[in-house]
TrEMBL record:
UniProt protein name: Copper-binding protein
GO molecular function term, any single one: electron transfer activity
Residues passing through the membrane, by range: none
Keyword Disulfide bond: no
Pfam families noted in UniProt: Copper-bind (PF00127)
Keyword terms, alphabetized: Copper, Metal-binding, Signal
Matching InterPro entries: BlueCu_1 (IPR000923), Cu-binding_ET (IPR050845), Cupredoxin (IPR008972)
Organism superkingdom: Bacteria
Signal peptide: 1-21
Residue ranges occupied by any Blue (type 1) copper domain in the UniProt entry: 51-171
Gene3D superfamilies: Cupredoxins - blue copper proteins (2.60.40.420)
Amino acid sequence: MKKNRMFAAAIAMAIATASHAGGVHGSSHGATAGEQGKLSDVSKTIQIDMYDNYYEPENIDVKKGETIRFVINNKGMLVHEFNIGTPEMHEGHQEEMLMMIQHGIIQGGKLNRDLMEMDMGNGQTMKHDDPNSALLAPGETAEMIWKFSDDGNIEYACNVPGHYPAGMYGAFKF
């Protein structure tokens, strides 16, 4: 099954690269999915392991108003993202992530952080430093503190082209 996911991701990435125009990275991807939390308000810590192309755990139970510390590990062989948002937010962000591939920032299993500082011509960069998102190369770990101030249709996803359609997303269950 994991081989099928890898194959599906490769096909989806090829299709996405051939058929989409990129957007600009740097918008607020978590505007309706909650807000950055404070360490002093954390009620629990959840470990997220990212593989090629799935998460463990696949779903997470949360409560409205709860603040969670996520410890995110990329255990895969590809660059992956942990991004908290609505399905609509993820759809828009996938176009921005495509631009990161087109500019050589994401190269399969490598992440060129120097290129993330590049000015895209409008004063915006591709730093990928939003509080609801972590972009990690294989073997990297990050922490995120998130407050679930909303309880709508919120999920976590990898928006690297091809990964979301291959099934790399999970639901927050309220």
